[in-house]
Design brief:
The protein is an alpha/beta fold and 292 residues long. It is built from 13 helices and 14 strands. The longest helix has 15 residues. It comes from Blautia fusiformis.
């Protein structure tokens, strides 16, 4: 019997508009009313997750920054697994030979190296790749809601060691560029370091965490600490940073119809796409089979 549902956010729980559809919110409420515990397992940090959940009444647990932070329904930090500063510096040195943008994600702000102009240009590249049409002008992007949101959450630093002065743990190193082959090369190179976990949530990025900070193992440890067993958990995801969940032997591992092929091959089930309320559909199937 499924007693816990853990869902990725972007590309899974959220539609392409980066919002949770009313249909999905209703399904989650039905599950919670039936005694099922709902969790999000996302690459976003806490602030980013709350941005997506702020207009909902969803109460849940949080597996954040791809597993680097865990919070309970009271939003209290249960566990942190940051990347040590020395390891951050080592990764950054490896990346210097590549024309990529690098962001250090923490539980509060996103940190970037460079001048104010260089950071602004990096934000524009990020929005052009992930949020807006690649042909949009710089001026249009600067005036967009996405630019204001990202810029407001960004802090500039002069060097890696400056992160120590910020006294906030680095949960993830986010790397992006328009060259897919180069990013794959970077992922393979960084993946040779046994202290790191490397995955991607989009084709144009790589995400680096401390090796213990992966959604699947962290979720397993957390649900077991709450008294649940793996066979009582359903997980849902769509991208490679969900592979550690989908590939584990949870009770139901569900890939979205829009998931990358590797996730579909690893999953036990496939639901509808994120734009067709695939999470809601999977929840309804569970409730129906359990007679709730």
């Amino acid at each position: 019997m499924i007693k816990v549902i853990a869902s990725d956010m972007d590309g899974t729980l959220l539609g392409d508009d980066h919002k949770i559809a009313p249909e999905t919110q209703v399904a989650i409420k039905r599950a919670c009313d039936a005694g099922i515990r709902f969790m999000v397992a996302t690459g976003r940090n806490f602030r980013g997750a709350m941005d997506a959940l702020k207009d909902t009444d969803i109460t849940c647990d949080y597996i954040l920054s791809s597993g680097a932070e865990v919070r309970n329904p009271q939003r209290e930090v249960v566990k942190r697994t940051p990347i040590p500063i020395d390891l951050c510096e080592e990764v950054y040195e490896e990346l210097k030979e590549y024309p990529v943008s690098v962001i250090f994600f923490t539980d509060r702000y996103d940190y970037r190296l460079g001048t104010k102009k260089e950071i602004e240009e990096g934000i524009i590249r990020q929005i052009r790749l992930f949020h807006m049409d690649k042909n949009d002008s710089d001026e249009k992007i600067r005036n967009s809601a996405q630019f204001l949101q990202i810029a407001g959450n960004t802090r500039g630093i002069s060097d890696i060691r400056s992160l120590e002065e910020c006294e906030t743990p680095v949960y993830k190193i986010f790397i992006f560029a328009g060259d897919v082959d180069m990013l794959q090369e970077i992922g393979e190179k960084l993946g040779q370091n046994p202290e790191l976990a490397v995955a991607s949530s989009f084709i144009l990025n790589q995400e680096v965490t401390e090796v213990r900070a992966q959604k699947g193992p962290v979720l397993k440890e957390y649900i077991e600490s709450l008294g649940y067993t793996m066979d009582e958990v359903m997980v849902l995801g769509d991208s490679l940073n969900d592979y550690s969940m989908i590939s584990m032997d949870f009770g139901a591992t569900v890939a979205m119809e829009n998931a990358v092929p590797e996730i579909k091959r690893a999953a036990k089930y496939i639901t509808k796409s994120n734009n067709e309320f695939g999470v809601a559909y999977a929840i309804d199937q569970v409730l129906e089979r359990q007679g709730k």
